[in-house]
Amino acid sequence: ILFDYSSLVALSFCFRHLYDNFFQNTIILSLWYDNPTFPTWQRWVTDCGMCVSAVGLSCAGKFRCGTSNKCIPAVLQCDGKEQCENGEDELSCVRLSGRSSVVQVQRSGLWMTVCSDDWTTWLGETACRQLGYNSYVESSFSPVNSIEQELQYVLVTEPTTAYIPHSKQFGVQCCARCDSCTHVCVLPDCGRRPQYSSRIVGGNMSRPGQFPWQVSLQIRGEHMCGGSIITSQWVLTAAHCGYGSVPAALAVERIVYHTGYRGKLDYDVALMKLSTPLVFNGSMEPICLPNHGEKYEEGTMCWISGWGATENGGGPSLTLRFAMVPLISTKECSQRDVYPGLISQGMICAGYLEGGVDSWDSGGPLACEDSSRWKLVGATSWGIGCADVNKPGVYTRITQVLSWVRQEMEVCLSSTLPCSYCSCFT
């Protein structure tokens, strides 16, 4: 993993020794892969520590327990009682929604906005843990009529919805990096660039700290894919970047693939958990995840970055480059002369239909700025050609996989469930 970081050292996990590196003043955490061929429906256990994932069993209209494959009624999920052997039915019960980060909880199969006149620090800490963070910063309050209309509902004592009778609803601000002993946040929030004063065709070279969440996944020192730091222990990338590969790495504890990914185009997303938390310092910072239901309009200008080739057929760039691209609607991206029949709700397109600027740094970020905070709207997935006319870049839409991301961070951070439930490699 190559970080946009101002040091001149590299770590090789296979040999576990330090050596000098002169690649753009960076830290390189090299991943070595044997790249075996795996069936798309299973992963084999090997002496490298790979885990077996479930074989995609279905529980139509019900909730499936990941470890036992037991099916339980959907209304029993998030009811405060564990019906699954390892309590999977009580995970992913909290989410942040809308632009104002409204807290919602799941109850009886419904997502309801939480409204409380007696909100406590303990509740804030609990909500943040269930979102995959290990720390709570603070709660903020705002009038009910200031949030999106569809969020103006409340969780009451009975499992029903009701219009909010209170004058305020709460939002929780979580921190991606904090003091592990005191649980007090000591650094600014995600998506900030405090030190800012595989193909990025038409892109420019970045400045130090401009994209502090950007990482590079490498094979024997060669750039393979991009990725984004989302917390001190988690990096998000494309599933196809490491699908069917075994990492022999000290710092990467496990790789988690989306359970819906089968080597095709949909659900092309993966998480990497680092065994040692990163220390954020301005040059290395996490990017924010979007909230549930957050929408980004067609034409919104966002940024792509990476070390991909700067021309068709060329090798990777030696410097981190970036380019600004507009978001393209699903309707326009599905047109007959663009990508007919290929764009799903889990994808988002960005780029110029007239060509000239494109991204091919697989797994790298599509980042959009929102209220001086940067959010990970997409992860580079696929495309046709190289900055060709009517062939924009296609990205995994992060809001569509947000529940999975939150659940895997919550599950795997706690390490209470077996690796097979996480669909991961260790």
TrEMBL record:
<dbReference type="InterPro" id="IPR001254">
    <property type="entry name" value="Trypsin_dom"/>
</dbReference>
<keyword id="KW-0645">Protease</keyword>
<dbReference type="InterPro" id="IPR036772">
    <property type="entry name" value="SRCR-like_dom_sf"/>
</dbReference>
<dbReference type="InterPro" id="IPR018114">
    <property type="entry name" value="TRYPSIN_HIS"/>
</dbReference>
<dbReference type="Pfam" id="PF15494">
    <property type="entry name" value="SRCR_2"/>
</dbReference>
<dbReference type="InterPro" id="IPR002172">
    <property type="entry name" value="LDrepeatLR_classA_rpt"/>
</dbReference>
<feature type="disulfide bond">
    <location>
        <begin position="78"/>
        <end position="93"/>
    </location>
</feature>
<dbReference type="InterPro" id="IPR001314">
    <property type="entry name" value="Peptidase_S1A"/>
</dbReference>
<keyword id="KW-0325">Glycoprotein</keyword>
<feature type="disulfide bond">
    <location>
        <begin position="59"/>
        <end position="71"/>
    </location>
</feature>
<dbReference type="InterPro" id="IPR009003">
    <property type="entry name" value="Peptidase_S1_PA"/>
</dbReference>
<protein>
    <submittedName>
        <fullName>Transmembrane serine protease 3a</fullName>
    </submittedName>
</protein>
<dbReference type="GO" id="GO:0006508">
    <property type="term" value="P:proteolysis"/>
</dbReference>
<dbReference type="InterPro" id="IPR036055">
    <property type="entry name" value="LDL_receptor-like_sf"/>
</dbReference>
<dbReference type="Pfam" id="PF00089">
    <property type="entry name" value="Trypsin"/>
</dbReference>
<feature type="domain" description="Peptidase S1">
    <location>
        <begin position="200"/>
        <end position="410"/>
    </location>
</feature>
<dbReference type="GO" id="GO:0004252">
    <property type="term" value="F:serine-type endopeptidase activity"/>
</dbReference>
<dbReference type="InterPro" id="IPR043504">
    <property type="entry name" value="Peptidase_S1_PA_chymotrypsin"/>
</dbReference>
<keyword id="KW-0378">Hydrolase</keyword>
<dbReference type="InterPro" id="IPR001190">
    <property type="entry name" value="SRCR"/>
</dbReference>
<dbReference type="InterPro" id="IPR023415">
    <property type="entry name" value="LDLR_class-A_CS"/>
</dbReference>
<dbReference type="GO" id="GO:0016020">
    <property type="term" value="C:membrane"/>
</dbReference>
<keyword id="KW-0720">Serine protease</keyword>
<dbReference type="Pfam" id="PF00057">
    <property type="entry name" value="Ldl_recept_a"/>
</dbReference>
<comment type="similarity">
    <text>Belongs to the peptidase S1 family.</text>
</comment>
<keyword id="KW-1015">Disulfide bond</keyword>
<feature type="domain" description="SRCR">
    <location>
        <begin position="82"/>
        <end position="132"/>
    </location>
</feature>
